[in-house]
Amino acid sequence: MNKNLENNKSTSAYKKIKIQFLILIALFIIAEIILRCFGMKAGTLIDDFKVEENPIYQPRFESDEVGINHILPIKEMLILGSVINEQGFRGYMNYTAQTIDSVKKSTHQQVVMIIGDSFVEGCCPDSAANSFPDIINEDPSYEVLNFGVAGTDPLQYKLVAQKYIPQLKPDKVVVVFYFGNDIINFERTPSPGTPLTYPFKNNKWLFSIAPNHLTKRVNYNFINAEEAYQFYIDSYTLKGKNRNYFEKTISYSVIFSKIYLFLEHKLAERAWYKKNLASNYDGISIAHTNLKRINVICDSLQIPCLFVGIPAPDEAEEGEKLKAKYAAIFNDLNWDVPSNLKTKDYDGLNKANHFNNIGHSKYAQFLKNKLIKLQTIK
Fold first, then answer.
1. Are 347 and 355 spatial neighbours (Cβ–Cβ below 8 Å)?
2. DSSP state of 217
3. Residue 319's CB: how many other CB atoms inside 10 A?
């Protein structure tokens, strides 16, 4: 009798464990499906990076002798409605001292130099003509010099300022800072001859500088786009040639692969910074140092300078809170950020998304109001 009771209890416990196990498997499968529905991909840390057998690199930028990135005039790679001048920036005229001087004398317009990344270059309304620099340029009071280059950062803005502000002597300078990705936590150095990004067809734009903790080297520049692509496969996915059987097995699961790669990167990062304490830079300080240098250049030439922020889509509706949130970046600089933007003013919710037509229109109005007030500073 006791043996039967024990057997029954054992059978009941086994069934209970089996049911719990099946429930866990079911929950795991449901979680995998939900994560995939939200765009997460298995086997990779970066969801917008695709592992392809024959990736196609599409050159879009070149870097000059001081490391400034310029736009290549390749029609199929340009924002709709773009014209690239001889200096490698978006503009119908060449940005030379003679040209700008002629514009000032013949039109009496205020020449406004706008420096920034893809938002300034003109992404992503239905046409570049609907981007905020072009909308401002339609105002008869202004002639806008567009120094926006997609995928760039505050170091690029400083390099552009150092080279072109003394040459062109614009009436006003506006530096546009995108909160979504302009805060970079390492001291990047200029890389003459190497573009900052490698765009691939229907794939992620790859950064041309490898993270220090993954290469165990400081600011290593990839030799070419192919090396960058292979590095991303080896470092950000579980599809690399050196991955073992276990790693390749869990690469089919979103949950397991994401956790594994996240921990792998965190451990490598911790080990690097433990040995290289001086490499643990503060992104806020780096940004401020570069922006401060631009302000010094403008002050030396008595040119009014304005710094403006663009919030990422997920923080656009924070309004006035953004001023306190990012005050340390600008500190003692003349800066502002609009408080009237909405999430719907962007073409998506990710940090890589941009203004749509409405967003560009709102930002143009904000900037025009700031430019009017900037007149009294000089």
1. yes
2. S
3. 14
